[in-house]
Design goal:
Layout lengths: L8 H27 L4 H13 L1 H8 L3 H18 L20 H16 L3 H25 L4 E4 L2 E4 H25 L6 H21 L5 H25 L3 H25 L1 H32 L1
Antiparallel strand pairs: 1-2
Helix pairs in contact: 1-2, 1-4, 2-6, 4-5, 5-6, 5-9, 6-7, 6-8, 6-9, 7-8, 8-9, 8-10
Length: 304
Amino acid sequence: MDLFVEPTTNDLIFLVVALVGTASVVVLGELLEKKTSMSANDTRKLIHISVGNIVLFSPWLFDNRIYAALPPAIFIIANYFTCPISPIEKLRLKAYQSGNSLGTVYYPISLTLITLIFFDQPIIMNSAFLPLVWGDGFAAVIGQKFGSSSSYTIFGNKKSLIGSLAFYLASSFGVAMGFVFVKLTDLEEYTFLGALCFIILISAVLTIVEIITPFSLDNLSIVFVGALISYGLYEFDIHLLEDSTGALIGVGILVFLWALDILTFIYFIMYFEKFKRLFTRVSSDKQDKEEVLPEEIEEVNEEE
């Protein structure tokens, strides 16, 4: 990878457009949070979704991966100084206060790396990053507004059934949109079967990844796991393009994945209350032990 490639006119023009456009969205989000009734969480996710869709256009507009990766790379630094733990308190944006302290830093890190590695394979870029853009964006907003009655806690992270379902559906939409854009711009060829495999498998696996990722690291884990799955499916789709006899095997795999996907959601919905009671009981038992232990120690000390 040559880091000193001379930029083309397209690279320079769209580098400026990307930087100005991203900065404008962030400023707009901050103004909306201050001047309207929109919550900090909603404005943060508005920025999250609006900025993330740049992944669709990068391979189409830029000629070189280095300049395509520059905007998110620059915003790694910018977001650090505007995040909740910024060393310069006056620079901290209110729109970023509701989320994880470093979530807005992890986001451009993921976008920078995925652009540098898979710039020439936009199908992988889109399929790895758009579930974070659309899935994570809508899961947070919808889960917070409508998921209180179906909430559960895993590894200290509070989730909801509604939010997880929103992640799955929005991720499917994001990946599908990526394939449509690739088709419209003639960036790559793919089979319809391959695209379906991407949409179904990636959305299902990344929903699970989003649920179980600890310490609010999902802005990294979703993209990296998505990239690994996308790379494997990408190679599978190339074989389908080269050898039509593999399509029958592909259909069988697709049907199996689809059935497994549907059964998993049905099982989760059917036994959701049992899972919720189990996690609640474990958490309650732990809290009771922590409360009882000091009282027992105090009683022993009084007897002595």
